[in-house]
Specification:
mainly alpha, 8 helices, two-stranded antiparallel ribbon
Length: 174
């Protein structure tokens, strides 16, 4: 296994996490859209490469910062995790492309693309986590970003739905 392949689980999470602040800084909005869509495509490509390696018989284990468990974040890509990351990556890329035509400028100004990248990172991290504690952490990352995305909708029905969603997530987190 070459050294780049060893880093694929980390790249699956790091690429969208680094893209999030970048798209907040990019002006005009079209540049931010393009960067977010390209990052979503890149994350999907990483997921495909990861899955090809796993299907070839590799199980990828990556310890962030070389910290041993239980002190550090350990990412593990086995068959189920890799397939789930591919499905998440495909969905993420499809949503990013759809958002090019559907997201209004106000939502973009409020950070839609950055929040969506954090959501992609949270989903990927949850699928690749190597322990229960970090599953909880990644679950909270994706819940927080999804709640902010949902609550950015205008209208009483949207706010009521966002609060119900948050209440259910708080109960599930407990």
């Amino acid at each position: 296994m070459n050294s780049l392949a060893h880093h694929l689980p980390a790249l699956q999470v790091i690429v969208p996490m680094l893209t999030a602040p970048l798209v907040m800084l990019l002006k005009p909005a079209g540049l931010a859209r393009a960067a977010a869509t390209a990052a979503s495509l890149f994350a999907f490509a990483i997921a495909i490469a990861l899955t090809i390696g796993v299907l070839d018989g590799h199980i990828y284990t990556y310890r962030m910062g070389s910290w041993p468990a239980p002190y550090g974040i350990t990412l593990v890509a086995d068959t189920l995790g890799a397939i789930m990351v591919v499905l998440g990556g495909l969905t993420g890329f499809a949503v990013a492309v759809y958002a090019l035509a559907d997201i209004d400028p106000e939502k973009e100004r409020l950070g839609y693309h950055a929040l969506f990248q954090v959501l992609i990172a949270g989903v990927s991290g949850a699928f690749l986590t190597g322990d229960l504690f970090n599953l909880y952490v990644w679950f909270e990352v994706l819940l927080l970003s999804s709640f902010v995305l949902m609550s950015s909708e205008r209208g009483a029905e949207a706010r009521a739905g966002a609060w119900r969603y948050e209440l259910l997530n708080l109960i599930s987190s407990l």
